[in-house]
Amino acid sequence: MPTLSPLAPARFPDLPQVDGVRFATAAAGVRYKNRTDVMLALCDPGTTVAGTFTRSATRSAPVRDCEAKIGGDGDAGAAILVNSGNSNAFTGKAGEGSVERIAAAVAEVAGLPEARVFTSSTGVIGERLPDDRITAALTDLHEALDPAGIEPAARAIMTTDTFPKGCARRVEIDGQAVNVVGIAKGSGMIAPDMATMLVYIFTDATIARPLLQEMLSDLTDRTFNCITVDGDTSTSDTLLLAATGKSAEVTSRGSPFEDALHEVMLDLSHQVVRDGEGATKFVEVSVTGAADDADARKVASSIANSPLVKTAIAGEDPNWGRIVMAVGKSGAKADRDTLSIRFGDIEVARDGWVSPDYAEDKGAAYMKGQELVIRVDLGLGSGTATMWTCDLTHAYIQINADYRS
Amino acid sequence: MPTLSPLAPARFPDLPQVDGVRFATAAAGVRYKNRTDVMLALCDPGTTVAGTFTRSATRSAPVRDCEAKIGGDGDAGAAILVNSGNSNAFTGKAGEGSVERIAAAVAEVAGLPEARVFTSSTGVIGERLPDDRITAALTDLHEALDPAGIEPAARAIMTTDTFPKGCARRVEIDGQAVNVVGIAKGSGMIAPDMATMLVYIFTDATIARPLLQEMLSDLTDRTFNCITVDGDTSTSDTLLLAATGKSAEVTSRGSPFEDALHEVMLDLSHQVVRDGEGATKFVEVSVTGAADDADARKVASSIANSPLVKTAIAGEDPNWGRIVMAVGKSGAKADRDTLSIRFGDIEVARDGWVSPDYAEDKGAAYMKGQELVIRVDLGLGSGTATMWTCDLTHAYIQINADYRS
Question: Where along the chain is the active site annotated (chains A, B) (predicted)?
Fold first, then answer.
């Protein structure tokens, strides 16, 4: 077992039940021994499902299958079946066969059309998925379904995550309580070939699929698409959001429901960074004053992905010269003389040079913190972006280089 | 002193003199003690100069000055003055003043117009350049100029390079011998704030400036723009090419001269990778079968910059799943079922899955080599690209994180 991340939360949160969804887990022996590795979530009829997926051109068979199914509406319930240990990615036509067999078996046991069965797989790339071990566990899984079973579900989807990830928010809509509850796995590209972020969010709200998808896509761009551990992108990233329709209806954007969903997604995305491989610091990169938002994002991404910035943070080195470098290479419009840099509230550089009041010991003291904010203002316009990342440490190399497959 | 790179050449090559150019070095104490840190190269009247520079938006004062001067033709000679220890980058208006004072002093001692004095600085970012120490050394430098002084020049421009870098080629044109001789410094972003690749190439050929610049720009795209150590870009990268006009004339593209120049640039660029921070493997990434050359470059760059691919190589792990991942995230058109991957001549994957003849021990044996070739064929078109990189090791983190500025 990897060491618990120093950035892990104190404990798994108490997650409320979401009316209309039940969970079960099993130890099917896909790859791991002596732990659960399959989870089934079953949603009642009337559920709408939205999803966002990796943009990888080599995405896995289950991702392609989910993408094909996600647009379909229907009154039937929905099932989500996830295994850990094997990603079923780059497994040729055999991979598609595995997805079909699993979906067919889940559909049969749950009494659903196959089009309402969504699957995810996470783990080794390029090895045949032993789907028979998963389908053999389905009857037991179906019998064990439990509305209180979300924490075991969060544990079953882990690969080399050092902690399970969950979050919940509750809002009141038209006098009715609405829950938004999510679980996630991922910590960059955790261990060799074990590379995925998976997120499942459930709500009892009633929401039409097009609105649900629109909200999810927009909020993904402001949460999960704003985090980076190593800049590498999984072939299997999947985020599914299911609304069971048991509570109040949400009919428009900008509602308290959307705020709650945003909070759950932001919290889960930060938990993924906090479990980043070898991470010892949680870093927010906040860019303002860019020519436009796209430029701000280029700068934030360049800083958050720079190995030199990330190793400096690991070394608690207030190395603002590397931030200047990362701004410069980003491709965004930038001007030395209008650029300013702050570490938290400490102004480090402005007017094209180090700030007159800045002293190295101030920056060095700030860098000893576990939660850091790097602020860059380009002084050009009103574009803004925020990204979250972690430092790049010896442990990252240890995890990714010293392991032999 | 850092440990000599295991990928270093056995010794510095014997470099021939280039008629019309002389070198001198000095220990001016810009930052380092007990070593040379300034070099002056002086070219005779009739010299044409071409240059390529970092694309960084936060490029340094000397880079901006060179860019402004590089287009100017003239019958006067040309001087190149380089210091190590301080990059004069992000030093505000003061940085521009330093460049002006150095250029004026060189112009005076060498009897040149200021427009023919090119300067480079490499070292710490954000500290005022003590230009008075450099200008104080100029009279001695000018008196010491020596046509045989190129090896000391290669040493004076080093920062934390572990070896000096030089290369030469000779071709015959119209019965006359033509020399192309270059020196370089750089090893990624060597040590904190010491981030630069500097390259100076001299030839006695006679070449009009527009042709010289055209050749240099094209060849830079196939050599120095195809190498990566950590994907970070210096604020000071500079490549200057001076043709003294003492030997035969080159009047068109595609000549033996251009081949020789290409070889010198390729060799020097590979030496920079071989001195990459913490490097233990030299890796060629060769992409074929892309939809077009731009797509091939995207894929090659994605593989060559992927921390997961580079840590796998460090661990001698034939982790082809990470190459699939890097292809997928590149943004280039790719198709799982037409993609093939080889390690050297060993076919690893094809038809969307692992190759039937591939065995893990073959790949593991190949990965033990010091010189590796990763070949990816996308099976879509005729686009090709080649990039060169090194592995990502504990030593990289050591150099960049454990150092405190």
Answer: 196
Whether chain A has a CB inside 8 Å of the CB on B328: the answer is: yes
Asked if A330 and A379 sit in the same domain, the reply is: yes
- Please write the tens of the pLDDT for every residue from A42-59: 999 999 999 998 888 888
B294 and B225 together in one domain: no
Closest-CA distance, A33 to chain B, in angstroms, reads 23
Rounded mean pLDDT, B168-178: 94
What is the nearest CA distance from B35 to chain A, expressed in angstroms? 25
**H or E element at residue A118:** strand A117-124
Angle at CA of residue B223, ends B220 and B224, nearest 5°: 70
- The whole-angstrom distance between A339's CA and the closest CA on chain B is 9
Chain segment B37-96, per-residue pLDDT in tens: 999 999 999 999 999 988 888 888 999 999 999 987 677 899 999 999 999 988 889 999
Name the residue of chain A whose CA is nearest to B61's CA: A336
Question: Which positions ≥6 away from A362 have C-beta within 8 Å?
Answer: A346
Comparing alpha-carbon positions, the chain A residue that sits nearest to B355 is: A126
Q: Which of B274, B290, B316 is the last residue of a domain?
A: B274
- A38: nearest Cα among A163, A133, A166: A133
Contacts B334 to A, Cβ<8 Å: 57-58
Which residues lie below 8 Å from residue B401, measured CB to CB, with a gap of 6+?
A: A311, A312, A314, A315, A317, A391, A392, A393, A394
For residue A182, the enclosing domain spans 21-274
CATH number at residue A30: 3.60.70.12
- Are the Cβ atoms of A195 and B233 closer than 8 angstroms? no
Q: Are residues A269 and A293 in the same domain?
A: no
A372 & A227 share domain = no
Beta strand pairing status for B198-203 and B238-243?
parallel
Cβ–Cβ of B397/A393 closer than 8 Å?
A: yes
Q: How many angstroms separate the CA atoms of B163 and B185, rounded? A: 9
Residues B325 and B381 in one domain: yes
Do A322 and A367 lie in one domain? The reply is yes
Specify the residue for token string 């991340």: A5
B114 among annotated binding-site residues: no
B348 interface with A at CB cutoff 8 Å: no
Q: Do the annotations mark residue B362 as ligand-binding?
A: no
Residue B304 lies in a domain: yes
Complex ipTM above 0.90? Answer: no
Residues of B belonging to the active site? 196
B83 is in an annotated binding site: no
The predicted-structure confidence for B335-391, as pLDDT tens digits, reads as follows 989 999 999 999 999 988 899 999 999 999 999 999 999 999 999 999 999 999 999
Domain boundary among B274, B300, B318: B274
